Every structure is written in structure tokens, then in C-alpha cells.
Amino acid sequence: MNDNFKIEEAFILPLFDELYGVKETDFSIQINPFGKGNHKLLMLSDCKTHDYLPENEFELLNGIIDKGLKKTQDDYWLLNISNENLTLEQILQQLKPQHLIIWGCDALLKNEQINLALHQQALLHGIAVLKAGPLSEYLTDAQAKGKLWIALKKMFFN
Fold first, then answer.
1. What pLDDT is recorded for position 27?
2. Count of CB atoms within 10 A of residue 78's CB?
């Protein structure tokens, strides 16, 4: 019997990467979301005039989160993409959300070549995604708010 059986490292390493999907996280990427993301819910906004959202939109969002989804500010992250210089993939790799709600952000979706209709849901890299309109639209449009609520119920309670 031959006891000199040896497997070269060059043969093993690519197999390990393939089997276990080894990916390194780039800790040099700095993301500054509002909230703690305890429930791995990420929401993206695009507001050029405020750090995150105008106060009336923040109040609406908190009502949706608190009363509709039964969550708190600690349960989600809110990221204003106009303050970040990152791709969606970089954001998702860093925060690793389970759910993503995109409030408007049409330029981002176009740049990322993501084609979602209003209130449409999809899976993106294993993440449940909902495309919503800008929060400002839901301040005055009760019909749009109703459609949003149907989409949110489908995403979180079905």
C-alpha cells in the first residue's frame, strides 16, 4: 500500500471557495444608516435636502413601521442613498438585510438595471424587495397608500 498520497493545495482551495462561497467583507466601506436594523429590514430613500427624510415623511414612515408592521425604529435601517457613494450590491453585502423597501430611488434602480414596477415585489440576491413610491406620494394619495399597504401585508404577513 502506498502511504504517499498527497492532495495539492492548488487543487483544494478552489473547491473550498466553490463549496462554501467564501466572500470577504470590505470593512473600508462606511455606511451611515438611521436605526439599528435589529430585524434586518433595510429601507432606501433618496432625499437631497435632509440627512434622511423631511419630518412629515419621517412621521409617515414611523406610522407605517409602528402601526402597520408592528416594528420600532431599532428594527430597521433607513439609508439615504443621496448621501452615499456606493452601489446597491455594496450596501447589501455590508448590511445583509432580509427585507428591502425602496422608497422611490428611480435613478438608483435604473443605474443598477433593476426593473420593478410600483408596489412590485421580487427577490434580489435572496432578499425580499418591494419597490414603493417616494414617501411624499403617500402623504396625500390615499389610493396609493392603500396599494402600498396591500404590498406590505403581502411582503410581511403572507
1. 55
2. 22
Q: Which of 46, 48, 124 is closest to 78 using CA atoms? A: 46
pLDDT > 70: what percent of the chain? 82
Residue 135's CB is within 10 A of a number of other CB atoms, namely: 22
Query: Is the pLDDT reported for residue 83 higher than 60?
Result: yes
For the CA atoms of 140, 141, 142, 145, what is the dihedral angle to 10 degrees?
-110
What residue numbers bound the domain in which 123 lies? 33-157
Task: Return the higher-pLDDT residue of 74 and 20.
Answer: 74
> What type of residue is 104?
G
The CATH number given to whatever domain includes residue 142 is 3.40.470.10
Q: Report whether 42 contacts 95 (CB < 8 A).
A: yes
17 lies in a domain?
Answer: no
Find out whether 70 and 97 touch, Cβ atoms under 8 Å: no
